[in-house]
Amino acid sequence: MELLISKKIILALILLASISFYVSFMFNSCVVSSLSKAIPKWQIHPVVPNEIPLVHYTSVRVVSLLEGNETDISPKYKFFREQGLRPERQLPSALIIGVKKGGTRALLEFIRIHPDVRAAGSEVHFFDKNYMKGFQWYRSHMPATLEGQLTIEKTPSYFITREAPRRVQLMNPSTKLLVVVRDPVTRAVSDYAQAVSKKPEMRRFEQLVFVNGSVGSIIDTSWGPVKLGIYSRYLARWLKFFPLSQLLFISGERLVLDPAIELKRVQDFLGLKRVVTEKHFYFNSTKGFPCLFKSEGHSAPHCLGKTKGRSHPYINPVVLQRLRDFFRPFNNHFYQMTGINFGWA
Q: Listed disulfide bonds for this chain (predicted)?
């Protein structure tokens, strides 16, 4: 009887142990499963020699510093390339919009000395002749810039183009506009001198400036060199789209006599540190024009092109006085609009 009881006890203990083991196993399995779901899974990928992993990027177009047959010999941009920096092309945030033969090329060459300024080298004529090509086309003609640098473009004919103010505003209503103005009489003679250098067979200035070619007749306001000098007419169009505070008027005369003074105003207007100073300029007595000790792309002193500082033809003083009398009321109106008396006789 005692043996039978012992067997029953042993079987009960075995059964109890089995049940305990099963319960413990099931509990541990649930805990492990829960933990595996809570802890991030780490995946180990085998390394395959010479295999390039697939990387998915967002749709961002990075424009290289140099594209196609473009060249840029600027030492600082060579350094940027070597450092792996990737400048991008931006639409301009400042424009030199005019006026023709006022000194726009000089202003562009002078301001691009500044390390924080990059400028399109040639006139793009986007807002007057190439607007239908779109802003992407315009952007492609801009120089590559780094963050914090300013992009500038110069096309003097923008000032007189009727559609230009609205088009510029559509691009960026905060665009800063620079206008280089010059005595309209001197500007007209300079305009004529440029034209006659290309077409020597042109009639004399004295004949073109009057309606019937006679000094005694009225001024021909349809003739380009005269028409462009009525600055107030064109400024009124720009002021419909931009406040006066976004336009800076640079004296073409003072830009020649004291470029450092005008460049100080330009740098302040553009929000740039005053880097370009009198130390950058020297006066060339032969050309009668300020030249640069050095600039981007030129380590040696140099002047602007041979077409700058071109000699003007002799003009009958009576004709010049007639022109001064003609422009006087328009000049006074322009002074009132800008709040600046440029002192043109």
A: 291-303
Closest listed residue to residue 188, CA positions, set 213, 210, 204, 205: 205
Tell whether 229 is in a known binding site. no
Residues 41-86 pLDDT 10s: 333 344 333 333 333 323 333 333 333 333 444 555 555 555 556 7
Answer yes or no: are the C-beta atoms of 179 and 232 closer than 8 Å.
no
pLDDT at site 338: 98
Express each pLDDT in 109-124 by its tens digit: 999 999 999 999 899 9
338 annotated to a ligand binding site: no
Number of helices (H), then strands (E), belonging to the chain: the values are 12, 9
Give dist(CA 145, CA 257) in Å, integer. Answer: 31
- Given the residues 101, 129, 133, 287, the one annotated as active site: 101
Say whether 311 counts as a known binding-site residue. yes
Separation between Cα atoms, residue 225 and residue 195, nearest integer Å: 10
Look up 176 and say whether it is catalytic. Answer: no
Point out which residues pair with 179 in neighbouring strands.
Answer: 98, 249
Contact 149, 78 (CB under 8 A): no
